[in-house]
Amino acid sequence: SMKDNEQNASKLNINWFPGHMTKAKREMQEKLKMVDMVIECRDARIPYSSKNPLLEEIIQQKPRLILLTKIDKADPIRTKEWIACLSNDTTQVLAVNVLKDNVVSLITQASQECMKAMIERQKRRGINPRAIRAMVVGIPNVGKSTLINRIANKKAVQAADRPGVTRSLTWVKVTKGLELLDTPGVLWPKFEDPLVVKKLALTGAIKDTLYAKDDVALYAVEHFIHTNPDALAQRYRLTQSELEDTTVETLLAITR
Questions:
Q1: Which of 51, 95, 113, 184 is the most exposed place for a label (fewest CB within 10 A)?
Q2: Whether residue 76 has a cis bond before it, omega within 30° of 0
């Protein structure tokens, strides 16, 4: 079943590379021309696995704001480490709970921070700075649509008028200083690494018809035994000996 999984993962690869990849890349490059910066949503539990390799490739020097979402489900200490690790000259990182935080003010502030150079350049030229234009991207299930809907305060993300047509671009006005472009088309993570696939499966970012659930469950048990055995034992009322058993035995104890 592990082998099937890997074959599934490579099937996904074939689907996505190279044809879809080229098309998605072209669309994305077109849209990047229309914006000043990119807002990329990633899952705070898996900031590496939930990134989109396409973006890395074509964004180049464009300022970027990475939003680590679902922080209520992530380890706060690890999240702090990720923020430090992902931040650089062109990248700001912000950890948010999309449903609870005041995302409008957080994102507006962070975007202004990202675009400081542009704003100052405009001011020096005596131009009244225009609204920052940002594009929101992210793989499925990282809270991208939820974020846009929260910001727009309504269901702003519309579907296509008719099938087979890339829907018109939706611009969402956040504040007078920030406008968001929602990106049509879905970006996928890179499925080449089986470990990445398991992490995405575990956080619900991949359809569960694409992988064997028992493999992912076994991976999860193994992962938590290494990283947080106390929480695992507490959650499933496991004894020390059940924890120290083989992974399969531990999973059976949890099942029971």
A1: 113
A2: no
